[in-house]
């Protein structure tokens, strides 16, 4: 009987802990995300849809801008997960590719810019702790982490573009590669 009571108590405790986590999100990350959405929409309104579309069209036309520069700037300015929302300006074909690159940018840039993804900082800090215990400077590690990340994140976006083409052929579909403005 004690085992059954213990199991029931543990089972209910699981939901209690889940509720506490949910409340921490409501008072923590959710208001931050909402405020970032408000900021992003305000900036887009101030800049104007025509200029935002010109910037997006310019960045979409070049793979280096599409998978290295734009995701890096988005991650730096908006952090995780808001950096991913910039992909909404891309043509349908490039959206999964941008997402693949931008997702990684939210992780590999945290050595120098910890504000991008504070929740994942423990990965970098775990490595940095080992470097610090060896008595080495952590600044070169952070720079290398960033530079390797820029290259790897570009490759991730470009590789996803390649696999998206393969899926298109397999499924017999063709996603739009044209940039369409809201005015079309």
From TrEMBL:
Keyword tRNA-binding: no
Transmembrane segments: 22-43, 64-86, 142-160
Gene Ontology cellular component terms for the protein in this record: membrane
GO BP terms, alphabetized: phosphoenolpyruvate-dependent sugar phosphotransferase system
Pfam families attached to this UniProt entry: EII-GUT (PF03608)
Keyword terms: Membrane, Transmembrane, Transmembrane helix
Highest taxon above the source species: Bacteria
InterPro entries: PTS_IID_sorb
Coiled-coil spans in chain: none
Designated name of the protein: PTS glucitol/sorbitol transporter subunit IIC
